[in-house]
UniProtKB/TrEMBL annotation:
Key word Transport present: no
Record protein name field: DUF998 domain-containing protein
Superkingdom of the source species: Bacteria
Keyword tags: Membrane, Transmembrane, Transmembrane helix
Organism of this sequence: Fulvimarina pelagi HTCC2506
Membrane-traversing stretches: 62-85, 97-116, 131-148, 155-171, 186-206
Length: 213
């Protein structure tokens, strides 16, 4: 191995203990959370790992659209967050914008997968579905105020379209019977996919330095 190749590998070798710590910490946290939930709810441990459709005896395509939206948001959120954390060329404001967008996208994806907004009240009476929505709206507002320069240089029309569809879905969820039956889920499907598209485009723009103020 040449001296140049050896030097290029040195940073990775230095952080190798941290690289091992990450999967160990995540695995331990998931196992601990599973044990706590199993003890508090009396749910068998196997039910936390097995597919919900298999447990209920439903066909595997039940919840297909739910999985599509959740996976889309989680994947695209991870892409833009990873890009923001690993790039060095763009300005710090651009990287912070990308990181905040990535975290918000991941949060929305996790919420859609685990229906957090509908179950927070069981954690504490003061928590509610509207409070969760308010937190998302506040985060988006802060992102717009702090990083409006980067946002205006991004393909923000995708974000506006996504918010429009998600707003329609939220209206149907809160008030119901505004549209034909179950259109709420289709509004959210389109909204999340367009949002994910915006996140990926933003990640590409960060790498290209397009968003630098």
């Amino acid at each position: 191995m040449s001296l140049t190749q050896s030097k290029s590998r040195l940073p990775t070798i230095r952080i190798m203990p941290l690289c091992w710590l990450i999967p160990i910490a995540i695995s331990a946290a998931c196992i601990l959370l599973t044990l706590v939930l199993s003890a508090r709810t009396g749910t068998p441990l196997s039910d936390f790992y097995r597919d919900a459709n298999a447990i209920a005896g439903h066909p595997p395509y039940f919840g297909f659209l739910e999985y599509v939206t959740s996976i889309t948001m989680l994947m695209t959120g991870a892409i833009v967050l990873f890009t923001a954390l690993t790039e060095t060329a763009p300005s710090r404001e651009t990287l912070r914008f990308g990181a905040l967008l990535g975290l918000l996208t991941l949060a929305l994806g996790a919420d859609d997968l685990f229906m957090i907004h509908e179950s927070v009240k069981s954690i504490h009476p003061i928590l509610s579905e509207k409070l969760v929505y308010a937190c998302y709206a506040l985060t988006l507002f802060v992102m717009i105020v702090l990083y409006y320069r980067q946002m205006l240089k991004s393909a923000f029309i995708f974000l506006l379209v996504a918010l429009g569809f998600l707003f329609l879905g939220a209206l149907e969820d809160q008030f119901g019977k505004l549209f034909p039956e179950r259109l709420e889920d289709f509004w959210e499907l389109v909204g999340f996919i367009v949002w994910g598209t915006y996140a990926v485009i933003t990640a590409v723009d960060i790498k290209r330095g397009v968003l630098d103020a």
